[in-house]
Amino acid sequence: MKLVNIYLVVSGNSFSCANINNKMSEPENIVCLDKEDTDEEEDDDIPDVATCQKLVEEFAAVTGTDEACAQFYLQDRKWDLERSVNAFFEASSGGVKVLTDGEEPELVVTFDSKMVSSLKAGQVTEEAPNNFRFITWNIDGLDNLNLKKRTKAVAKVIESEKADIVLLQEVVPSTLSYLQDLLPQFVFIVGDTMEYFTATLLRRTTTHYDDHTIIPFANTSMGRNLLSVQAHIGDIKLHLLNTHLESTAEFSKQRREQLKIGFNRITSTPSGVSGIFAGDLNLRDKELRAEGLPAGIFDMWEACGQRQECKFTWDTARNTNKELSGSFKPRLRFDRVYLRPSDPPTLNAQHFGLVGIQRVTGTQSFPSDHWGILIHFKVPVKSSESSDASSSTSVPSTSTYAKRKLSS
C-alpha cells in the first residue's frame, strides 16, 4: 500500500506514517501492547492476533492510512477501535486547506470524531457501489434570515438523500463550519474561504479524493471561479467541475465567457474519465443557444426526460424566500448539470429531481431560494472475471493528507 504523508502529533512529538512504518513490525507480527508498560491483568484484555488484524484493517479503511499507522494508535489505546479512531480524528472542524510552506504543496483535511459512527453503522466497505447520488445546490449563505436553521435543513437533505457527491454554491465561512460539524462523513474541498464560495463534498466511505485545482475567472467582478476535483468511485474516475457563474442580466457577456471556460475544461477531460460540470450557472436559455452545447456534452435534465415540474431551480412562483415587487414571478433554470461521458461510458443517469422544496420547520423559509438538483447515477456492475482482472491494475488511491492535533 502506498503511504501518504499523514502527520501525527502525540504528546508534542511529530511523526509521519512513513517513520512509524519503519519503527513498527509487519502486520502479521502484531504485538498488541508493549509488555514493559503493562501487567498480567492488562494482558488478559488483549485480543487475539486475528482480532487485532481485523481492527487494524478497519482503522486503516476509515482513516485512509496504512496498517502500521493503525497499529500505532490501537496499541496505545488497548485495541479500542472507537478510542483509536477518535484520537486520530479529534480536532476542531476545518475542512480542506492547501499548505505551500513545505517542499511540495500538501492537502490538509480536517476530520471530526463523529466519523466513528460509520463503523457502528457498518458503512465502511472496500466494495465499490453500483450507483451513487449527486446533488448540486446554491444554499444562499448570503441571506442571514434563518441562516443556521436553513443550513441545518440543507445538511438533513444531503444525509436523508444519501448523497455521495455534493456541489454547493454560496457557501460562507459560518455555514462551512456548521456543515462540517453536521456532516463529518464528508471530505470538504472549498473554492475559497473568503466572503462566499463553492464547496465540493465527497462521502468518505464511497467517493475517494484524488486531486483538485481552482481556476480563477479573469473577467469576474464577483470573486467567481471554477473548482475542479478529481475523484473516483471504485474503478469509475470522475472529473467534477463546480462553479457559480457571474450573476444578473447585466453580466451576460462575462457569464458566457465563463461558461465557455467550463465547457472547454469538461471537454478536455481524458476519455477514460467521466466529467460532470454543474452548479449555479445563472444561465439563460438564449445564452446557451448563443454559445452552443459542445458535441458529446449532455444536459442531465433533458437526458432524464425533461420533466416540467423539475425544470426551474430558481422559481419565485413557488419559492418565497426572495420577495420580488410586482406581479411578475420569474421562473428560471439557473442551476444545471452537464455530463461528458467517458469512453466507454461508465455512468447512466436514472433519475433527475429537485430537493429543498419543503419549508424549514418552525419558519416560513425554504432551505434556500434555489431548489437543489438530485441525480441518481447507475454504475455498470462488472462480471467477476473482469473484476478480478481490474483488481490487479492500479486504481488511484485517496491522496488526501491529514494533519491532526491528537489528544494525549
UniProtKB/TrEMBL annotation:
PANTHER family: TRAF AND TNF RECEPTOR-ASSOCIATED PROTEIN, TYROSYL-DNA PHOSPHODIESTERASE 2. Residues 384-408 are annotated as: Disordered. Keywords: DNA damage, DNA repair, Hydrolase, Magnesium, Metal-binding, Nuclease, Nucleus. Residues 135-370 form the Endonuclease/exonuclease/phosphatase domain. GO terms for biological process: double-strand break repair. The keyword 4Fe-4S does not apply. The keyword DNA damage applies. Its cofactor is Mg(2+); Mn(2+). This is Tyrosyl-DNA phosphodiesterase 2. GO terms for molecular function: 5'-tyrosyl-DNA phosphodiesterase activity; metal ion binding; nuclease activity; single-stranded DNA binding. Residues 384-400 have a biased composition (Low complexity). InterPro entries: Endo/exonu/phosph_ase_sf, Endo/exonuclease/phosphatase, TDP2-like, UBA-like_sf. GO terms for cellular component: cytoplasm; PML body. Its main location: nucleus. It is found in: Nucleus, PML body. SUPFAM superfamilies: DNase I-like (SSF56219), UBA-like (SSF46934).
